[in-house]
Amino acid sequence: PWTQFHSSVILLPALSPSPKVRGTHPDCSIVLHFQEREAECLERIRSESQTTALPGLEGEGCATEWDGVSCWPALPLGQSRAVACPDILNVFKKSKGLIQRNCTEWGWSPPSPPYHSACQLETLSSNNDTEAKARHFVTMKVLYTCGYSTSMAALLLAIGIFSCFRKLHCTRNSIHIHFFTSFILRGTAVFIKDSVLFSDESINHCTMSTVTCKAAITFFQYSVLANFYWLLVEGLYLQTLLLLTFTCDRSYTWGYILIGWGVPMVTVGVWVLTRLQYDNHGCWDDYSSLYWWVIKAPILLAIFVNFLIFLNVTRMLAQKIRCPDLSKTHKQQYMRLTKSTLLLIPLFGVHYVVFALFPKHVGVDARLYFELVLGSYQGFLVALLYCFLNGEVQAEIRRNWSKWQRSMESNVFNLATQDFTA
C-alpha cells in the first residue's frame, strides 16, 4: 500500500545531491521533493479543470491524478501508461523500475507493480532498521545533552574563579572568559534549537517556517560563529604574547572583542537579510542551500587563519627554546607554553578542516559522533586546560584557601579568648 511506502520514504536519509531540492533540514529533502511534485501536479489538475474538454478524452477517460508519488497525466479509456521511479529514489538503487496504471471504466487501476517493489526499497524501509535508527539518535541526543551540560557547568565555574580572584584579572584571562561564554552560548543554542524543532512529535519540522524557529536557528548560527572567532582570538593572543614577550597589553582588548563578537554579528546579519530577500522558506537550517556559504565561508576562513597561527607559533617556540642566550626561567615558560599549545591543537579547529573537505554524505555517522557527541565536551576540555589545570589559578586558590583557614582559626581563637576572659 502507498501509505506504507510513503512512511518508509520519509524516514530514509536524504542522500540526494541534487541542488534543486530545497529542505529545511538535511533529512527533509525527500519529503520536500514530493511536496514540490504534488504542488506541480495539483496546479496542472486545476488548470485542466478549467478546460471544458480535454484533448483525446471526449468526455470519457481518466483525469490527471496525484497518487502520492507520481503525477499521472490524463488518459483516454482503455489505455495504459508507465512511469519510472521518482528520480530522487535512484540514489538508493542502480536500476530504474517502471510502474504501470490502466485507465478503466472505474478509473485508474492500482500501480503495478507496487512502488515499494518496483523501486526496490523493501530492505531500506524495514521496521527494525527504523527502530534501530531511532534508538541510535536518541542515544546520541542523551550523550550530547550530558556533554553540553557538563561543559556549561565547568565553564560557569571557571568564569566564577576568574572573576572572584583579583590577581587573575588580566587581558589573557579576560579573553578566556569571553571564550568560555561563547561555549556557553553554543550549548544554550543547541538546547533551544532542539526544544523548538523537535520537542513536539506532531509537528513536521521539515515544513516548519515560524519566526520562533528562524530566530532559534539564527541564534545557533551566531553562537557557532562566535565560538570559532573567539577560538581565533585565542590563537591571535597566543601569538601576540610571543611577539611582545609575555606582556599583557590591554590596548588590543577592544580589537579582540570586535573580532570575537562583532564579526559573527555582521556575518549573521548579512545571512539573515540574504535569506529574507532571496531564500525565505522553511526554518533556515538547510545546509544544501547556496546561501549557507555566507556562514560557512567565514568559519573556514577562521579555521585556516588559526591553522597558520598554530604553525607560526610552533615555529617561534622552537626558535626561542633552541636559543642559547635564553635564561632558564624563560625557557621553562616557553616549555609550558609549548605543552599547552600542543594540547590545544583540537581547539585551533585543525580537525574541522578535514571534515570541511569531505562531502556532507560521506562519513555521516563519524561526523555526527565527532561534532555532536565529542564536540559537546569541548567546553569542558577548554575549562580544564585554561582554568582547572592552570598553575597560576591553582596557586591563587591555595593561597586564598590558606588565608581563609588562618582567618577562621583566628576567629575561633578570639572567641575562645573572649569566653575565657568573661
Automatic annotation (TrEMBL):
Keywords: Cell membrane, Disulfide bond, G-protein coupled receptor, Glycoprotein, Membrane, Receptor, Transducer, Transmembrane, Transmembrane helix
Domain G-protein coupled receptors family 2 profile positions: 40-123, 140-390
UniProt feature coiled coil, ranges: none
GO biological process: adenylate cyclase-modulating G protein-coupled receptor signaling pathway; cell surface receptor signaling pathway
GO MF assignments: G protein-coupled peptide receptor activity; peptide hormone binding
TM ranges: 142-163, 228-246, 253-273, 293-313, 341-362, 368-389
Intracellular or extracellular location(s): Cell membrane
Membrane topology label: Multi-pass membrane protein
Gene Ontology CC entries for this record: plasma membrane
PANTHER family noted in UniProt: GROWTH HORMONE RELEASING HORMONE RECEPTOR 2 PRECURSOR, PDF RECEPTOR-LIKE PROTEIN-RELATED
Protein name (database record): VIPR1 protein
Species this protein is from: Pycnonotus jocosus
